[in-house]
Amino acid sequence: MREHQAREESTLPVDLIRTVALFLIILLHASVGANAAIDFMSPRGVELWWTANVYNSLSLVAVPLFVMLTGALLLSPSKTDEPLRVFFKKRWNRIGIPVIFWMIIYFLWLFYSQNQPLTTTSLLQGVFAGPYNHFWYIYLLLGLYLATPFIRVFTAHANWKTVRYFLVLWVIGTSIISLLTLYSPISSEVTWFRSTVFLFSGIIGYYILGSYLTKIKIRTVFLYLGFALSSVFTILGTYFLVGSLGEVYGQFFYDASSISILVASVSLMLIFTTIPSHLIKTKHPKISQGLKIISLNTLPIYLFHYIILETLRNGILGYRIDVTTLNPILAIPLLAILTLGICLAIIIPLKKIPYVNRIIG
């Protein structure tokens, strides 16, 4: 069983999944930077809203992809007997020092770019909630790491029927029941019911699912269809919710727990599992090399990219690249591509300096 699992892990295109997820994260952050001064009822505003809605809807699978990949790598049965000390030492060496370093950088960035004073309260708030909004994922990782020793026991010893039972409960509690909250007269009651009855819900399901994706076989045509239809559902569903229930419901289908994002994320991940890593390496060696470079630098790029993104968007270097200076259809992906490229251009040389590699990630 362990040898079989090891072979399955070796075929997973880890570099491809990391690269796609990372770029989608940057694309997502580039698409939510619409200028607040724009009148969204104007033709220009409508164009901007629809463009951002499409890019948002396509990018929201990024976090589930990251979480499922992490589950696939850390919840392998071959790692069940890994001592706690070894497991947490590896995690600390991988992200501990870099996260502390980048937290300090973002405290300074807040002081420089937004004139936010560095008081004891602001520092404590930044420590417990993250100095910048994308740090929430680091805290999510921390929670997953703390739970991993327990989850490993479950994934190692539970049979497939038990796992399917968990996944069915997770889908119902996370995505299906949530749809009932759209009916406002019972919204609060449904929320209470879900949190009380369905204890296994939220992002944890993606983590456990990641370790079992190799056991799920669905025809590729259905996977592509599932990804396409669920993405369209997110786009149009968001439009109809905003139009009928108001802007307050505009984020409903953007949540990683929504049924459309769940279907899109799982479909895309299963599509990736059909692409053996060695196939990319042998048929497209240059692409494989590029994916490897980005994959090895995922953490520092993720932590650094917001500074580059805001530098370009706010015109700190003398030229502004955002939806006010270019057509949003072009501006958003261009901003994401430039951000990724500049991050690589800065991080790769820095990592060649002794000791800097461990500090920045």
Beta strand %: under 5%
Mean pLDDT: 87
Termini, distance in Å?
A: 33 Å
What about the largest sheet?
A: none
> From the helix content, strand content and strand pairing, which structural class follows?
mainly alpha
Cα shape: globular
Radius of gyration: 21 Å
Q: Give the low-pLDDT segments.
A: 1-9
Into which percent range does the helicity of residues fall?
Answer: over 70%
What is the number of strand segments?
Answer: 0
Number of alpha- plus pi-helical segments: 17
Order of helices and strands: HHHHHHHHHHHHHHHHH
Question: Briefly, what is this?
Answer:
The chain has 361 residues and is mostly helical. It contains 17 helices and no strands. Residues 1-9 have low confidence and may be disordered.
Structural account:
The structure is a single chain. The chain has 361 residues and is mainly α. The protein is built from 17 helices and no strands. Mean pLDDT is 87; it is low at 1-9.
Structural topology:
Elements: H1 2-11, H2 14-31, H3 43-59, H4 62-74, H5 84-113, H6 120-129, H7 136-157, H8 160-176, H9 187-197, H10 204-210, H11 220-245, H12 259-273, H13 277-283, H14 285-296, H15 298-313, H16 328-350, H17 356-360
Question: Which features does this protein show?
Answer:
361 residues, mainly alpha, 17 helices, 72% helix, globular, disordered N terminus
